[in-house]
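Render this sequence as a predicted structure.
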Amino acid sequence: MLNIIAWLVLGLLAGAIAKAIYPGQQGGGILATIILGIVGAFIGGSLYSLLNTGSLQLVAAGFSLPGLIVAILGAMVAIFLWGLMTRRTV
């Protein structure tokens, strides 16, 4: 139960900071921010694992300052990818 709460807190922090840093307007409420942060933690942790070990593994960033930084960077990648998928052409 504590792991789930830790993931929610990490997701909220990482998502909120990534939305504040990333240029442009992103929609979504607090639930979208938490989900974005959790997805970002997995993206960032997996990319960090790829750079360190040379193999792609589905790993989440830990609940620490370096883990938060990796989760923020991953959330920024998730914002970028979400923007590509939802972009409308006129």
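Summary. The helical segments are 2-21, 30-53, 65-86. Residues 30-53 form the longest helix (24 residues).
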